[in-house]
Structure formats: C-alpha cells, structure tokens
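Protocol step 4 of 6: structure prediction from sequence.
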Amino acid sequence: MKEEKIKEELKKSGELTRVGNDFLITRVVTRHFISDFFQGIRNLFGLRLRSYERVIKMGYEELINEMRLLYSDEVEWYRISINPMVNGSIMLNLYGALKK
C-alpha cells in the first residue's frame, strides 16, 4: 500500500518515469545559502566542499531508498548521473532496468 502511494506521488510530480522495463527517478536539490558562503571561502583555498558533498550524498541516498522501496529485488542494473544546474542546484537522475 505504501509503495503504491509513493509511486503515485512520484508520477504526479514527474519524478518517476517508467517505459517498459526501464525506469528513471529524478531529484533536484539545492545548496543552502549560508553554507554556500562558507564553501566559497573553502574553495578559494582548495579545500573540500563538504556541504556540497553532503547535499549530493543525501540526494543519492534518497534515490536509492526510493528505488529499493518501489522495485525491491526487481532491479537488474542502475546508474546515477549528477548534472550541475544554475545557482548551485544539481539534478540527480537514477535510471536503470528491471529484470525481465
């Protein structure tokens, strides 16, 4: 029941696309304004941008959890692509195929 509700919410929002055995889950995440200021300073010195890494990791984990919840053991393979967007936003795409 919970899986069906989540599938419907994802379909309505346009975040889940399924054609045949192929699927795509999309998520757009943004940086936090205040941490963005400090990351700019860290970037000047060539240090790791931990808040950005956390944003990507959090989005990645959400996508993996949704995929497991929706398709459990049906997934044959999957990939994740990370695409930069304007003003510090990133788009995460999880795509793959289900077992036939």
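Step 5 (inspection) to follow. The longest helix spans residues 50-71.
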